[in-house]
Design brief:
single chain, 243 residues, mainly alpha, globular, transmembrane helix, Multidrug ABC transporter permease, transmembrane
């Protein structure tokens, strides 16, 4: 397993994925900060008002798209030059292949989450927000990362089967809007992309109830297990087309 994870990181060397990991959170933070700056007369709740603006664009749109890009990217090399054929005949278990990709993308997204909370802190300082830094935003960031694991599992399942780089990203964009609708319909805890909205408290900073909190963690684990099992089973039993 360690060798598989190391191999996945080696594939990312000299790639431009690091640039994407930094630029997208920066863009979402700038958009949120500009919105906060021009609406300070209405947004008067300090750190929490700033969070509503920056996390809305980041957690609701940019992060799911970034996850889809990362998942498509870590599967891109295998889809080229019949590399799937070589990989599937190597002495590495199918489970190791999928889990290694899941771990690598999870680490990349954890880095992005840490960058985001750092930028959020910096933005609050630049806006001279006088109230103490809300520690609960750190827990929101961690919950958001855990919720992202469900999306990673799903997007990897798509990217493993679809050779196109763009199609899984387009599916992710569509799923974002579906998730938003389900969240508004009070069904968000049963859809992976809506779980991210809950985890980062993007649209509502009110703490989840006890039942919602339990459902949040249980549904995330359920989605991760389901999508991972489906992908591993497909890799074991179905041929993958490679070019």
């Amino acid at each position: 397993m360690k060798r598989s994870i190391y191999a996945e990181f080696l594939k990312l060397r000299h790639s431009r994925i690091g640039f994407v990991l930094v630029v997208l959170p920066l863009i979402s933070m700038l958009i949120g900060c500009l919105n906060f700056y021009f609406n300070q007369g209405v947004l008067t709740n300090g750190w929490y008002s700033l969070w509503t603006q920056v996390s809305l664009f980041y957690g609701e749109f940019f992060l799911p798209i970034l996850i889809a890009i990362c998942c498509a990217y870590v599967c891109r090399l295998e889809h080229l030059n019949r590399n799937w054929n070589m990989l599937m005949t190597s002495p590495v278990s199918v489970s190791s292949v999928f889990i290694a990709k899941l771990v690598v993308v999870s680490i990349l997204i954890l880095f992005v989450q840490m960058l985001f909370i750092g930028l959020y802190l910096l933005a609050g300082i630049l806006f001279t927000i006088s109230e103490p830094f809300p520690v609960e935003t750190i827990s929101m960031t961690i919950r958001g990362w855990f919720a992202s694991l469900s999306i990673i599992s799903l997007q990897l399942a798509l990217s493993l089967r679809i050779r196109s780089f763009a199609i899984p990203i387009g599916i992710s964009l569509c799923a974002v809007f579906i998730g938003l609708g389900l969240y508004i319909a009070k069904l968000g805890l049963f859809f992976p992309y809506s779980l991210l909205t809950f985890g980062m408290s993007v649209l509502n900073q009110v703490e989840m109830t006890g039942i919602q909190n339990i459902l949040f963690w249980v549904m995330n684990m359920t989605f991760i297990v389901i999508f991972a099992s489906m992908s591993i089973n497909q890799l074991k039993n179905k041929d993958i087309k490679s070019s």
